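Per-record layout

source: Apostasia shenzhenica
name: Xyloglucan endotransglucosylase/hydrolase
length: 295
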Amino acid sequence: MASHFSFLALSVLSLCFLLTAMAAAPRKPVDVPFQNNYAPSWAIDHIKHFNGGREIQLYLDKSSGTGFQSRGSYLFGHFSMQIKMVASDSAGTVTAFYLSSQNAEHDEIDFEFLGNRTGQPYILQTNVFTGGKGDREQRIYLWFDPSKAYHAYSVLWNMHQIVFFVDDVPIRVFKNSKDIGVRYPFNQPMKIYSSLWNADDWATRGGLEKTNWAYAPFVASYRGFHVDGCEASEHAAFCATQGLRWWDQTEFRDLDAAQYRRLQWVRQKFTIYNYCSDRKRYPSMSPECGRDRDI
């Protein structure tokens, strides 16, 4: 009986240690080789691997762009990529890093980097699709030239909020507003995608600036892929309610005071478009916009 009790106590202690370790998972990106975690989505001949697969370059020319996707699908987590954008005259090009499910009423979380003429700043557009509905664009100028060096672009996604980060600076928050009738991504696993393509029908000044193919091939570079999420094979309720992952802890259900100050700084200094303020395009403000104003 005593040995049985000792074994049971040891098992409970082991379980507690395991849960503590899971909750205290590393919070900084860990480099993962692309070759082990990604597959080309199209035009494989326009992708080049370096440094044992830890760094890749996407090429865009007149014949094709290209892209890649994660092998796994994820439901909630923290996802990050270091990217160096197309340099020089990048007008008409779009470099993207996003999460997306695969069905008609899909969910999607987007970073889209809109190229520009030489000397003009890149525009970072973010968007959130829920249940197949998007049209939630926000655009900012970055406070640096993203073609000069690698910078980290990250998404934190849990049951309470989706946060877009640039070098750990929050630039956008999309809160779970199901209580006011807004759908929220919570039950559709998403793959991680990145791509480089020609979008000169809309990307730069609404399509007025066309791609200058004299600068081709255009090159976007990637490294430092990081994913800490629940894979699709795991049970959604476990990911959403048990609080066993660091990104599912209470402290990540909202921004802290310092993060709110940084977000306000981005909004005041760098925001150039917010769908919540576009009364011409949207005469009736989306319900989540009222909550967004309180941030």
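summary: Residues 1-26 have pLDDT under 50 and may be disordered. The chain has one domain: 30-292.
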